[in-house]
Write a structure and sequence with these properties.
Layout lengths: L2 E11 L3 E11 L2 E12 L1 H14 L6 E6 L2 H16 L13 H10 L4 E5 L7 H15 L12 E4 L11 E6 L2 E5 L2 H8 L6 E5 L2 H10 L3 E2 L2
Parallel strand pairs: 1-4, 4-5, 6-8, 6-10
Antiparallel strand pairs: 1-2, 2-3, 7-8, 7-9
Helix pairs in contact: 1-3, 3-6
């Protein structure tokens, strides 16, 4: 059965400090790399961001295997998050869960076809080493930019939300946000375009949450 591999990593200089994330998506022997930076963040936020970007750049109807060397990410998404939700996003000690915004965004991107795998860092895994290098470069770069952490304002070709019909698909391609009534329309708009993002949404709330997870403020 065909599937997609996602390899992710995060890095931070100072923790908190300047951070970087990297995601490698492999499908049909084709490799796409994504990376970005944040000026004042933590290593854990970069790990979550890398996974989020990877899932945003893969279709929801595919089997996905995501590999990370972050125990925090693996344990959080596979063990802890359900308890946090039931407990009103509080830990067992009653403290607010850190990085709630990213956990909530990850939940919206996770489906039954997503399989989470932990790999040992710096152990010779070629794609993990590559993701680590990209994340480290971003954490040390003064010129790199990240579309998710800088909350860009985008040009939108979608019209008012009052005209939305659900379910539908939403895409972000080269700074242009669009909505599509069918998967075929969405696929045509995003296929083969590096960095294109897309997601199926079933309600206005999901649509708004998706845009927030992309760090988008929509201009009316």
């Amino acid at each position: 059965m065909n599937h997609i591999d996602i390899i992710t990593d995060g890095a931070c200089s100072g923790n908190p400090g300047r951070g970087g994330w990297a995601t490698i998506v492999i499908q049909d022997n084709k490799i796409q790399e994504y990376s970005g930076t944040a000026p004042d963040t933590t290593n854990n936020r970069m790990e979550l961001t890398a996974a989020l970007i990877g899932l945003q750049n893969t279709p929801i109807d595919q089997e996905i295997h995501l590999y990370t060397d972050s125990q925090y990410l693996i344990n959080g998404i596979t063990k802890w998050v359900k308890g946090w939700q039931k407990n009103g996003w509080k830990t067992r000690t009653g403290d607010p869960v850190e990085n709630k915004d990213l956990w909530e965004a990850l939940i919206t991107q996770t489906h039954v076809g997503v399989h989470w795998h932990h790999v040992k860092g710096h152990a010779g895994h070629i794609h993990n080493e590559r993701a680590n290098l990209l994340a480290q470069q971003q954490a040390g770069s003064r010129t790199a930019k990240s579309s998710i952490v800088t909350a860009p304002r985008v040009r939108t070709a979608t019209g008012p939300t009052s005209e939305l019909r659900f379910p539908c698909y939403v895409s972000l391609v080269t700074g242009v946000l669009e909505r599509h009534e069918t998967w075929d329309e969405c696929k045509e708009a995003t296929h083969g375009i590096s960095g294109a993002k897309f997601k199926k949404v079933a309600s206005l709330a999901e649509y708004q949450a998706q845009l927030r997870s992309w760090g988008i403020t929509v201009e009316r």
